[in-house]
Specification:
Layout (H helix, E strand, L loop, with lengths): L18 H11 L5 E7 L17 H16 L6 E5 L2 H11 L6 E5 L21 H18 L11 E7 L1 H11 L17 E6 L5 E8 L12
Parallel strand pairs: 1-4, 2-3, 2-4
Antiparallel strand pairs: 1-5, 5-6
Helix pairs in contact: 2-3, 4-5
Length: 226
Amino acid sequence: RREPLALINLKKKNEETGEEELAKRLDHCKAKATRHIFLIRHSQYNLDGRADKDRTLTPLGREQAELTGQRLASLGLKFDQIIHSSMTRATETTEIISKHLPGVKKISTDLLREGAPIEPDPPVSHWKPEAVQYYEDGARIEAAFRNFIHRADAKQEEDSYEIFVCHANVIRYIVCRALQFPPEGWLRMSLNNGSITHLVIRPNGRVALRTLGDTGFMPPDKITRT
């Protein structure tokens, strides 16, 4: 789902028509539409919860999700789907946001769960997960990037608008990978709760970052990063 030439079996190339046949098949594989990816960080949640099910949204977190939902609805876009992390805080954020976007289907996935994507460079002293976490979480989060962040399918005729509700580490890693920046720099970015990050993927594969961690639609006293 990336470079059209990679989707063609060159061994089947017609020797008589040659380049003309190749051009036809290439055109059939080229994307025509633009994908708009909205990456939403979950709202503030209860940090004291031991298990994931106990890490529910705080009252402020629920307010933040309402504000994010209102903001997305105000854009006047026809959203195709909401794909969200299966963790409690992301699921609850999705439920509140979806009230403002009636009719948009919701899909839960384990791929977008929070984790340690890759060892940050430069390293930080306050966050040092076990090395095995980078291998387990990193492979999963990279799989999420490859599965969800790509140019539109060649059969897609119209531009699409998709929402992904997940976590700060996942979003920061995806942004670095999508923009072809060194992924080790993911921890240099900071994202507020309920923030909106907007990536645009053009038919030719070029990616642009429209907004990163936008919470300008929230009153200052509602903004958190916990």
